[in-house]
Design a protein that fits this description.
The chain is of the alpha+beta class. It has helices at residues 23-36, 44-51, 53-58, 92-97, 120-133, 152-157, 184-188, and strands spanning 7-10, 13-17, 64-70, 73-81, 103-111, 140-146, 161-165, 177-183. The longest helix is centred in the first third of the chain and has 14 residues, at 23-36.
Length: 201
């Protein structure tokens, strides 16, 4: 398993796995994103991990929370857990394709507006994927995103493969949801292309 003490410097920022002292700052980044950018605020059935970040990510051996910090301030987050997508709101076929336990799900990939365009999200995602590749039992890295958020679609298409564009289905409350996958092989090594055929059920 990856050494959780490693860090990466990106200009004045440091990208690393979160520590207990980072929890309040990480929660603030997440909640501010829900309220200020997503416009729907905190939704208990979607955001239960944010209430107990410590148990969900820091103490769970197959989960991690990656943060970008500027000095002592957490300015960005990326989480990874072992829960696949839930039905509802997502299609049943998707939950069968990405079952909990074998699926490493990326979520909470948020960067405060004043700290964007420094490569923080890309570095955090790579760190989380490297972690997943070192955990026995994961078959793939899965995520879904709201492509109505400026920059989200282009970012994920540069790093992952589309599984299903659900914008026409009305799933997830009508939000612009697109599902993506990063094969574990790609997480272990970025030296080769992975053949991938998108599907949508």
């Amino acid at each position: 398993m990856r050494d959780l003490t490693q860090s990466q410097e990106i200009g004045p920022y440091v990208v690393r796995h979160a520590r207990p002292g980072d929890v309040p700052g990480a929660r603030s980044v997440m909640l501010d994103t829900f309220y200020r950018e997503f416009d729907y605020g905190y939704v208990p059935q979607w955001h239960d991990d944010v209430v107990d970040i410590d148990s969900t990510y820091l103490r769970h051996p197959r989960h991690t929370l990656v943060v970008a910090v500027l000095g002592e301030e957490v300015v960005a987050t990326t989480a990874l857990n072992s829960r696949g997508p839930a039905h509802p709101p997502h299609p049943r076929w998707l939950t069968e394709r990405y079952p909990s336990g074998r699926t490493a799900q990326l979520l909470r990939v948020y960067v405060r507006p004043d700290h964007r365009r420094h490569g923080l999200a890309r570095a955090m995602v790579r760190t989380a994927c490297e972690f997943a590749a070192g955990v026995p039992g994961y078959d793939t890295v899965y995520l879904h995103t709201n492509v109505d958020i400026p920059g989200a679609e282009a970012f994920w298409r540069s790093m992952a493969e589309e599984v299903c564009d659900a914008r026409t289905t009305g799933e997830h409350g009508g939000y612009g949801t697109v599902h993506f996958e990063i094969p574990i092989g790609a997480a272990r090594s970025t030296s080769g292309q992975v053949e991938f055929v998108p599907v949508c059920g």
